[in-house]
Write a structure and sequence with these properties.
The protein is built from one helix and ten strands, in the order E-E-E-H-E-E-E-E-E-E-E. By secondary structure, the protein is mainly beta.
Length: 158
């Protein structure tokens, strides 16, 4: 289940702002960590529409953005579970079910994974759009990544 909001604003068609966020509730995470929020925002300004430019400059725009994205886990990763296998026939011909312990050790403290990104840039066009320039800086960092890690077989889990 999730709630999402996205708001966009502009001022005189040269200054733009977009903000929003999302809140998720996940059934695959522990109850204490299953509610998480992640926001985003970006702003841009067309400088060439705000102030007069030399004749050789057709357009100059600057932009910046920040966003955080969340991700939950696959099912059954918070506890160690039993699986009911297909019935098998015993030596006497009796069909019986069997339960086997999963080889995945669950983590009851699992948290949502987050990725945070930042971007900034400048766009410019010159000489009646014959030359263009686009410079961008971008960075991304992920935390609390949800991955499977191998364990020694002597633990009973892999």
């Amino acid at each position: 289940m999730a709630l999402y909001a996205d708001l966009s604003f502009s001022y005189k068609d040269y200054l733009f702002l977009n903000v929003g966020g999302r809140n998720d509730w996940s059934s695959t995470l522990p109850i204490d960590n299953n509610n998480y929020f992640y926001p985003f925002a970006n702003v841009s300004a067309v400088i060439s529409d705000m102030v007069s430019m030399p004749e050789v400059i057709d357009m100059v725009k600057i932009r910046a953005a920040a966003a955080k994205v969340g991700r939950d886990a696959d099912p059954y990763l918070t506890s160690t579970n039993y699986a009911i296998d297909v019935p098998f026939t015993t030596a006497t011909g009796t069909k019986t079910n069997r339960a086997t312990l999963s080889n995945t050790l669950g983590n009851p403290n699992l948290k949502p994974e987050f990725t945070t990104e930042y971007e900034g840039g400048v766009e410019a066009q010159f000489l009646q759009n014959r030359i263009s320039l686009d410079l961008t800086y971008f960075t991304r960092k992920s935390t609390d990544q949800i991955i499977s890690a191998a364990l020694p077989r002597t633990t009973g889990f892999t």
